[in-house]
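Batch job 17 of 40 flagged for manual review because the log was empty.
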Amino acid sequence: MSSYAKAEGNNHGSGFNTHDSNGNLHKPFTPVVKKRLSKKPYEVSIREQPVTIRRMPYVPVEDSLLVDAGTARANIAASAEKPNGTTEGDWAEKHKHQTVLEQHVSYFDPDGDGIFSPLDTYHGIRAWGFNVIFASVFAFLIHLGISYPTCPSIIPDLRLRIYVKNIHKTKHGSDSQTYDNEGRFKPQQFEDFFSKYDKAGKGGLDIWDILAALKGQRLLRDSFGSTANFAEWIVTYLLLWPEDGICRKEDVRGIFDGSMFQKKADEYQEKKRRMKKQGMKAGLKVDGKGQRHSV
């Protein structure tokens, strides 16, 4: 029996999605999906274990532009929609000397010296528009938790700095497993994550999908990894802050390779400029925090 037949007989609303050669998303069990699944020589779900039906993995189609999805990419965050990674602004080309995990944190290293401090992280978070308290607490917790594993020696960095070249040593469990232990990007795991938890084929995750993912990805007795993953998704949701409540897959991919961070900082600066311009027209003064005051 094909994977489709087994899954269809148990759950018509599973989260299995496929993409055509143009990266277009096909919702679960359309005729296109049914035809493609029937040709596969393997099964991705079994009736005896319902969880394999509720959380269906990504299965590449024959004409997919995402080749060798199971092979980790050293320096591009490849997906079905973006098989060449982030090409806007020549991001992939400019960062080809870094692993994807190194790219993820490069935003916090503005001078490019390979080291960033809690103050660098604080300024990076503030540039997104977060308040002083949130930025201070989150920057401190990040560096407290992962500074030491990145240190080049057994002696801790008393300034809690993070060394980019060793950022792969900070990989934790209970996450999407998209990064491998060397900091590469694994397209299969990234696609699996959205295939499993984007239940309605929305092209992204809402808050309920994210909560289900946090539970589904949690590993036994992994309190650190579970807590870190929870915190990362809180910041991701607050940073993206989608109007319709859905964190789009492409935006999340931009979080993984770090390209979204500067984009959001630029958007916030543009927002402040617009507010300042509007405030001047209304006879108001806008301070550096985006607050308006009478003049």
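Reviewer: the log was empty due to a logging misconfiguration, but the result itself is present. The mean pLDDT is 88. Unflagging and moving on to job 18.
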